[in-house]
Amino acid sequence: MSRYDKDTLLSDWRQRALSFQQEIGNAVIGLDHAIRQITLAIFSRGHVMLEGDVGVGKTTLLRAVARGLGGAYERIEGTIDLMPNDLIYHTYINEVGRPQVDPGPILKNGEQLSVFFFNEVNRARPQVHSLLLRVMAERSITAFNREYFFPHLLVFADRNRVEKEETFEIPSAARDRFLMELHIETPQDPAMQRALMFDPRFHDTDRLIEDVQPGVLPYRDIADIARVIQVEIKASDALQQYALDLWQATRRPQDYGIKMDGVDMRQLVLAGASPRGMSMMMRAARVSAWLNDRTSLIPEDIRQVFVDTTAHRVFFNPVYELRRSDLVGELMSGILQRVAAP
Amino acid sequence: MFKLLFGLSPALLLAPALACSAELTPRIEPSAPRNFGYVMGDLIDYHVLITVPESYALETEYLPKPGALDEWLDLRTVSWTKTNAKDVAHYRLRLTYQVFKGVRQPEKLTIPSLPVRFQGQAPLEARTPPWYITIAPIIPPDIADEKVEIRESVVPEPLPILSHRLRLIAYLAGTLAVLPLLAWRYGKLPFFTKTAPPFARTMRDLKKLSRKPADADAYRTAIKLLHRALDDTAGFRLFAGELESFLADHPAFAELRDELNHFFALSRQVFFTAPDAPIPADSLFSRLEALCRQCVLAERRSV
Q1: Which one of A294, A336, A342 has the shortest CB-CB distance to B271?
Q2: pLDDT by residue (tens digit) across B53-110?
Q3: Which domains does chain B have, with CATH numbers?
């Protein structure tokens, strides 16, 4: 592919990505940050964990995203009795009274599956997490004595953060496979809150989703363009050093002069971000540079994705893990405030 | 008797004429404090009041010039004042002599008369009368010359300087108190350089850097130094996106908005977007120094 072709390709796709964001933004208001980050995740080929209160628009957002991508969308609710097989097949007695086995939610659409939404993932058992881990990591599954592949699959999971009863915390290995962990909050803008309450447009989510132009981003081609983006966006030495410093700061925050009230910084971090996590962060940062019409990475690209791609990969000592939600945000903003570039 | 009268008659006849000529003769009234008790080195004031008709003016050119009159007498100063009275002018001459005559016995000396000329219808000259003074020896009479010892100089009387001294101490104490503060503000305190204000410190580092060869590395180091100074001023790592909130928190830097925006754009270009490109021609090292200097001023304004 010539230089000109590449530039045109990147530029065309950037326009599509921007219209995709706009389409989703029309359907889901007040979630601009989440929409932007999900766009980055789509082009980084990464899975996203959503965390947020009930009824803030997570499902609507994902349905809109699935429609914008144009592939098949499947969804499953995590429950304590959900078993891995429930994702793969579904057994029942059919209309003629004979047992029948049908493909489950994951297999039903075959390769067309573009968005798989696992709601309340922490209510499911570790066995299910384990299956999910493989689906996310390899985009494949073994069932009915053969391999099934899902080359375009993006997994979105939602973690209930309100109840702790009958939940199974997702193992760190599984969390590490999510590119991002996004916090979906109720919009703070009073005008938006008013619109969500009184504008009839937002009462009927099915109509809202129908308004989204289907297939703005053809999901089948994304893997290719994602590869081109990763190759074309350059990272200077100074930027690589900055990314490296950020990584080291997640492992040894005390070396970067980060201080937190009531926390012994030397004891805080049990395990910093993983190499896979950092590679994912850089993938998302490159996409951010591309979306901003640049061919080189700048620190702002990394800062744009740092918290969402890294916070869930840092594990605290048990004594601090209970206060995780308070401490992790402070640690992340501390790292961003203390690590210099250049 | 007749003979007597006859003898006097020329004098009587001349009397009116004499009176008339006396009007033209200046009246001279010397006045001196005393004519005794002088010793070698003394200053002698000699005042002469000369009264002339109003139409006459003193010829100052002819006044005696200060200087040595003879080997033992100097004229030190000559001054005069004029006051007008009815039809006449009074000139008061003030002459100061210094006598250098060394004597072993009291002696009578003559201060010579001096001519004083006036300008008028006809030139008019008056002479101060000679004046006699007595001068005394300064060596006791019973000591031979070779045994005379020079007296020690008189110890000068100490002037009351206590108030000056207190004032000096107060000024010095004030200066000493302010000096460390100023030195700190200007980043000149040798042992506390790390606590000096960020830009003052950076200015000094930039000066050191400018003495080294001006290559791309030095240029990059200079940009980094400025970044660190901005970081230290902000209290966190300052990135381009946070510049506006920084300027809102530090209004003293607000007038540098354009320069700082340019600096961030430059830094981005040099370090990230075009790291291998040559240094931009419009952003030489001197421009970085100028920015730092402006920041130092802003820093001083903000405290």
Answers
A1: A342
A2: 888 888 888 888 899 988 889 999 999 999 988 888 899 999 999 999 888 888 898 8
A3: 26-138 (2.60.40), 172-302 (no CATH)
- Contact call for A296 and B273, based on CB within 8 A: yes
Local confidence band at A1 (pLDDT 50, 70, 90 cut-offs): low
Of A239, A296, A342, the CB nearest to B223: A342
**Average pLDDT of span B197-224:** 86
Q: What is the pLDDT of residues B287-296, one digit of tens each?
A: 888 999 999 9
Q: What is the set of domains in chain A, with CATH numbers?
A: 29-219 (3.40.50.300), 233-338 (1.10.8.80)
ipTM of the complex: 0.82
Phi, psi of A176 (to 5 degrees): -65, -20
Place of tokens 């990969």: A313
pLDDT of residue A217: 87
Q: Which residue type does A149 have?
A: F
- Cβ neighbours of residue A276 closer than 8 Å, sequence gap 6 or more: A176, A177
Tell me how many degrees the CA angle A273-A288-A328 measures, rounded to the nearest 5. Answer: 30
Write down the pLDDT at residue A291: 94
Contacts of A299 in chain B (CB under 8 A): 239, 272
Tokens of B10: 């020329």
Half-sphere exposure of A303 (CA within 13 A, CB side): 20
- Read out DSSP for A141-197? EEETTEEEE-TT-EEEEEE--S--TT--PPPHHHHHTEEEEEEE-----HHHHHHHH
User: Residue B112, preceding bond cis, omega within 30 degrees?
Assistant: no
Query: pLDDT value at position A13?
Result: 93
Q: Which of A312, A46, A318 is nearest to A171 (CA)?
A: A312
What is the mean predicted confidence (pLDDT) over B136-153? 84
- Three-class DSSP category at A270: strand
Cβ–Cβ below 8 Å for B239 and A300: yes
Chain B residue numbers touching A285 (CB-CB < 8 A): none
Burial of B183 (0-12, 13-18, 19+ CB in 10 A): middle
| Stretch (H or E) spanning A286 | helix A275-291
